[in-house]
Amino acid sequence: LQHHKIKQTILDTSKIIQLQASKDHNGSDMKYTIFPPALLFLCHTSHAARPTLRGAGINLATDRGEAHKEISPAAANHDVFEPALHLDEWKAVDSEQFEWVNVAEVSPGETTCGFLKSPLGWEADANVIFPAVNVYFCVTFAVQQPAPKGNLAIHCGGPGSLSSCLYNAEIMLPDELRGSYNIVAVDQRGMGRSEPTFMVEDCAVQLQDEDGALSAMSLINEDSVRAASKVYKQRALRCWNHPGFRLEAEQADGSSRTFHFLEYSGTRQLAEDLERFRVLFGSQKLNIYGISYGTVVMGTYATVFPNNVNLMILDANVDPGSDIVSRTVDDARAKQQRLDYFIASCEFGNGQCGGDRDMRTCVNNVNEMVDAVSEQFDSFLTPFASLFELFGIRIGKSMIMAIVLELLFSVYEEVEFVCDIAADGAVESFWTWLMDKFTIENSNPMVSLIAATNTTNITDLYPMDSESKPTSGFATPDFPFKDYTIFAEVTSVCQDMITAQDMSLGAYDEDRYVKFLMELHQQYPGAGTQMPVGHSIQWYSSTYYWPNSTPLAPMGNPFVKGIIAGQLHDPWTPYQWTQDMRNNFKSATLLTSRSVNHGINAAIGSLSSDSACYDNILRYLETGVVDFTDGKACESAEIGDSCTISEILSNGQCPPHVEPQNNLIANK
Fold first, then answer.
1. Are 552 and 297 in contact (CB under 8 A)?
2. Tens of pLDDT along 292-304?
3. How far apart are CA 366 and CA 405, in angstroms?
């Protein structure tokens, strides 16, 4: 009976924003033996995990009922929103609990930050006295005050997104809508200006890989996987034993008790810090918007504090469970499917496929050719080993396949020849052709130079990385402390520390670790590139030999309403996870984009937008009402019009090649 009551419930829903720092590979005119940027996917930290600003997707929710009656965008439900506190009350907050860096900046339209002085643990969980930690919160105050729609907390993903995430709203929301919310973002525990910090060498696996085992790891070479596993194990033990994570607190009886920071700095604690912040500043229900890993943050908040949620938007959802094995399998499978879909699109009319060839058969035949010449190629590349190590690229068969696939899908005049010699098994001819591609002249269009990447982000547009402003984590090398950028951009510390705490059922045996990854690669080989499992290794390895995880409760609540949005061919968060999240939040509304990108409005990098879905979110944030039916699917650019093979192999975003559809975004 209860189940049927839930099914009959009239639903409300909501969703949020994300912004994307796009990375552009820029070639030069130098003469070198050079390789395509597609190679860089092999060992780079997933862009989804980097603490940059991400291409924001926006989703909305509304009341649905009365046979899914259409609701006018102008028909705002004023009962949905509760105004925020008057700014005088924000200024007068108890400085023992929260301290503004510059209280004079608490004013309409201004962005400023301060420190939440948070107990390490949740007060109601134990009759103990916890040590305090400092958590850095930032707010962009609404132009209209008191903010008529209340407070909107946003998290852009990672783990590693910092307080500069709040500037996503500056980019994505129309002025009038942006001016009606106080927008809140945070440097979660261990990151940015919050203290203690995760950013220590003992926790950075990339800084402990003295022999290059991580970059040399090949999923078809057992010895190399074992060597990498030892580096991950060493990192787990060294990090756990780092003395800076032992925090002392005197108890009521005068005794001293030691707490371990790495048991109190996961996603659950971030949700608790958001709740503390909400209560300090008025106790109105919180509007929440999460993108990517931000869906774990806001999904956890809605699970633990369901009665305190107003609008909810979860976009590009991460797995709502805590099993690292199933998460790794789902991730690898989705990446394989995206590659398969791109190759299959040749039969749908993808103009990048060069003729009427059966590209699936051609790719399979080429893979066999690469097997036959891989040892010769290894010898050929040996003189360049130090260069590849610098870029974190593993030499081997997967490298050759990445090069050949990029050529097949970009140099159309080569397709017939290469496919024919591969079909004939002409190994000698294939080797001659391959070597010809590495006789490089300045004007040779077939191979791209490994180039330093330039980060395009909004740090030039908005104030950050100063005493009272949001933290970006990458704009200033020594802010908030010396060498921070090295940890934030070169290592995966943020992702590893949160994943290790949040997830469960990782491996504690070298044989099991090696067998799992190699068998998973057999299932999802990525056309010989090792891309699917190669991009999933980091997450699985974060939990390897981790001494004591504190897994999250499964996310979900049958009564919390909102928008759950996902993309069918998302490179970073499998669409299955969006389905799972929607199933767990049964009163929410599913919004699906057929996009090949990450986030509803991931096309921000090309100044275009997936407007069919994006507008739904804007209306929801404006009216508080979901005016579309559950399961709505939006159109998107075809994969052949959006993606190049380089973007597929690097597991990257694919900006649609269309004119800007949103003048506000284009102007920004």
1. no
2. 999 999 999 999 9
3. 9
- For 62, 309, 313, 438, 588, the CA distances from 561, given in Å and listed in that order, are 9, 9, 9, 56, 4
Closest CA to 82 of 383, 316, 377, 286: 286
Q: CB neighbours of 458 closer than 8 A, spacing ≥ 6?
A: 19, 21, 53, 164, 167, 170, 171
d(CA 291, CA 25): 25
Residue with tokens 């997450």: 539
25/44 Cα distance (integer angstroms) = 14
The lowest-confidence range among 163-172, 242-251, 565-574 is 163-172
CA 1 to chain CA centroid, Å, is: 39
Q: What is the mean pLDDT of residues 113-132?
A: 89
Per the CB < 8 A criterion, the answer to whether 588 and 556 are in contact is no
Instruction: Tell me what pLDDT residue 447 has.
Output: 37
- Rounded alpha-carbon distances, angstroms, from residue 81 to 77, 115, 224, 275: 8, 27, 56, 18
CB 300 within 8 A of CB 271: yes
Residue 229 predicted with pLDDT over 80: yes
The four Cα atoms 394, 396, 399, 401 give a dihedral, to 10 degrees, of -150
What is the rounded (10 degree) CA torsion for 285, 2, 321, 200? Answer: 30
Per-residue exposure over 609-643, b if at least 16 CB sit within 10 Å of its own CB, e if not: bbbbbbbbbbbbbbbbbbbbebebebebbbbbbbb
Give the pLDDT of residue 637. Answer: 67
Distance CA 438, CA 440 (A): 5
Structure tokens at 174: 């129309």
Q: Where are the alpha helices (DSSP H) in 16-76?
A: none
The C-alpha atoms of residue 267 and residue 51 are separated, in whole angstroms, by 16
Q: Which residues contact 167 (CB under 8 A, 6 or more apart)?
A: 19, 53, 111, 140, 458, 461, 462, 464, 470
- Contact criterion met (CB below 8 Å) for 82 and 281: no
Alpha carbons 547 and 236: distance in angstroms, whole number: 8
In angstroms, the Cα distances linking 212 to 201, 236, 386 are 16, 18, 10
- Asked if the model's pLDDT at residue 629 lies above 90, the reply is yes
Q: How many residues does the chain have?
A: 668
**Which of these, 224, 176, 237, lies nearest to 508 by C-alpha position?**
237
Find tokens 């002409």 and name the residue: 426
Residue 386 is predicted with a pLDDT of 56
What are the structure tokens assigned to 121, written together?
A: 């643990």
What are the strands of the beta sheet with 632-634, ordered from one edge?
Answer: 98-100, 111-119, 132-140, 182-187, 151-155, 286-291, 309-315, 563-567, 589-593, 632-634
Q: What DSSP element (H or E) covers 22?
A: strand 22-25
| Whole-angstrom distance, CA of residue 519 vs CA of residue 221 | 12
What is the mean pLDDT of the segment spanning 126-155? Answer: 94
Mean pLDDT of 351-357: 65
Give the type of residue at 161.
S
Residues 460-491 have pLDDT tens digits of 567 888 889 999 877 667 788 888 878 877 78
| Contact by Cβ (8 Å): 195, 133 | yes
CA distance 171 to 518: 43
Residue 566 Cα to chain centre, angstroms:
13
Cα-based angle 258, 263, 267 (whole degrees, multiple of 5): 145
Q: Which stretches does DSSP call E strand in 431-581?
A: 453-456, 563-567
Residue 455 confidence (pLDDT) above 60: no
